[in-house]
Amino acid sequence: MTTTVKLEDSWKTALRAEFEAPYMKDLKAFLLAQRESGATLFPRGADYFRALDLTPLDKVKVVILGQDPYHGDNQAHGLCFSVQPGIRTPPSLVNIYKELHTDLDIPPARHGFLESWARQGVLLLNSVLTVERGRAASHQGKGWERFTDAVIARVNEQDRPLVFMLWGAYAQRKAGFVDASRHLVLKAAHPSPLSAYNGFFGCRHFSRANAYLVEHGLTPIDWRLPETP
Fold it and tell me: Where is the Uracil-DNA glycosylase-like domain (predicted)?
């Protein structure tokens, strides 16, 4: 992975040093070796940086952090919590929709495709950007975490007020360096069925984020998804 990687221009500029760093070259070698061994990787290569391509650095308003891509067929497409059209909505996203309904009276979408959020400035970033088919967390510790730390750092450095939605202990640790004196940092339990009742439900992050954006002269996010993806 070098600076010739296909990536939205603002991110390519902001992350140039990362792409030239030895750890990214090692990560590229690991991914190539995986493919050569016959492993199936998700998402497809063109979607590794989909979250960045859809949400340029200067357009970011809200950051939502996930951990790993989905490892089942036809699920992952580069956005955390989101699945491709026609795929059953995963349990955590079902709970996100429930909170949206409670918070903003938005009925749950019939699909799990979140690109409309990304196009409005919601950076849907996983900590790890690839996974082997059927092997959850199989690409942790290979370099992606350092890269996405740099992504979060570039967002944190922006001179406009932004919103960070940190769901669960992992996301809260990963973005622990975000400057809460300049940005709104919202924390809650993870929306997974195992923890959603421990503080995710009722957190009202969506309305709180929009109120903050409006307060600072920014257009709020339309969290209502299109009826069809």
Answer: 53-213
Note the Cα 71 to chain centre separation in Å: 16
| Tokens read off for 217 | 């002269």
- Can 68 be counted among the known catalytic residues? yes
Structure tokens at 179: 């400057």
Identity of the amino acid at 47 = D
Q: What is the dihedral of CA 206, 209, 211, 215, to 10 degrees?
A: -170
Task: Read off the pLDDT of each residue in 129-142 and give the average, rounded to a whole number.
Answer: 97
Domains of the chain, with CATH numbers?
9-216 (3.40.470.10)
Rounded to two decimals, the pTM is 0.97
Q: What would the pLDDT profile of 174-201 be if each residue is shown by its tens digit?
A: 999 999 999 999 999 999 999 999 999 9
Name the active-site residue from 47, 68, 105, 149.
Answer: 68
